[in-house]
Specification:
Aminopeptidase, 2 domains, 12 strands, alpha+beta
Length: about 300
């Protein structure tokens, strides 16, 4: 029978070194950043998370020597316990490990257990393939050397300060609604939305690496677009088609305009995140040729707390 044996956080431990190496490899593969840059980014993330996360050896409790069969790194984030990393001798052991992770989530009063899984990650895939897990969000990427459809007559126009002020007022609430639709409470979703927006755009319209556009067809505004363009892979933070303009092809046109804009700026890839509760958007991105790099799954624990 498997058991979790907590071990002290140690910046010099083999577990942390392994987790850092795996995180760097994953970031290079999914974000296309330089390995040295990925190392700096992931080392910083590890340093921030160390005081608020826990490390466990996964042991065979039936053996006298309690031999370690793997390890896991867990962290509590608001109402969720996140599996930052996990290693097992065999993916088949995931069936026995999951109840232990659920037990840790309940001990933290978490309402959800979350874990990401990318193509080829066998242990993670074995965990999220068990009953109860649902896809909360998916990261996707488009290689910009593909044929990109001309979005005309739609065109992107950089937001003015006045246009940005109007746009940003509703963005925190809109993103909180998206998070709540994934299973978070309204209060936790609003808190996370406010925090993330403050981190992402600390200087508003002039925040480094951020670009904000209105999408126009002639003189009519049909939607908006928020891009991050300070990395090798540009990233769509948000795309919105005005409610009264939907189902007319504007979403595809905005995405094609975004892809052309990023390609012309020298980016080889454009990435995005799509929530699991938005199948229409996911169908659009599939149609446009985006491929999945990472899925984030959640297991609801409604009786926790």
């Amino acid at each position: 029978m498997l058991a979790l044996r907590e071990i002290p956080a140690d910046p010099h431990s083999a577990h942390e070194a392994d987790a850092l190496a795996r995180a760097i490899e994953r970031r290079v593969a999914t974000r296309f950043v330089d390995p040295d840059q990925a190392r700096v980014q992931m080392a910083g993330a590890l340093e921030r998370l160390r005081p608020v996360s826990s490390w466990f050896d996964i042991v065979d409790d039936a053996r006298d020597d309690a031999r370690a069969l793997g390890w896991t790194w867990l962290g509590a984030e608001a109402e969720e316990l996140v599996v930052y990393d996990v290693v097992l001798d065999s993916p088949d052991l995931a069936v026995e490990l999951l109840p232990l992770l659920v037990g840790q989530a309940r001990a933290h009063g978490a309402r959800m257990l979350g874990i990401g899984a990318g193509p080829g990650e066998q242990v993670r895939s074995a965990l999220v393939s068990q009953p109860g897990f649902t896809v909360r969000a998916t990261n996707m990427v488009l290689a910009l050397d593909a044929v990109l459809t001309d979005p005309a007559p739609l065109a992107l126009h950089t937001m003015t300060a006045a246009e940005f002020d109007v746009w940003v007022q509703g963005e925190v609430e809109a993103y909180a609604e998206e998070l709540a639709a994934t299973g978070m409470s309204a209060e936790a979703a609003l808190e996370r939305s406010r925090t993330q927006m403050a981190e992402l755009i600390p200087s508003g319209l002039d925040s480094p690496g951020m670009e904000f556009f209105l999408a126009r067809v002639g003189d009519d505004v049909v939607g908006d677009l928020w891009l991050n363009t300070d990395q090798t892979m540009a990233f769509v933070y948000n795309i919105e088609v005005d409610e009264g303009r939907r189902r007319r092809g504007h979403g595809a046109a905005i995405m094609n305009a975004a892809a052309r804009h990023c390609r012309d700026a020298g980016h080889p890839y454009l990435g995005l995140n799509v929530f699991g509760h938005n199948p229409h958007a996911r169908a659009l991105y599939d149609k446009l040729g985006y491929r999945v790099t990472h899925d984030y799954y959640a297991l609801d624990l409604p009786d926790a707390g």
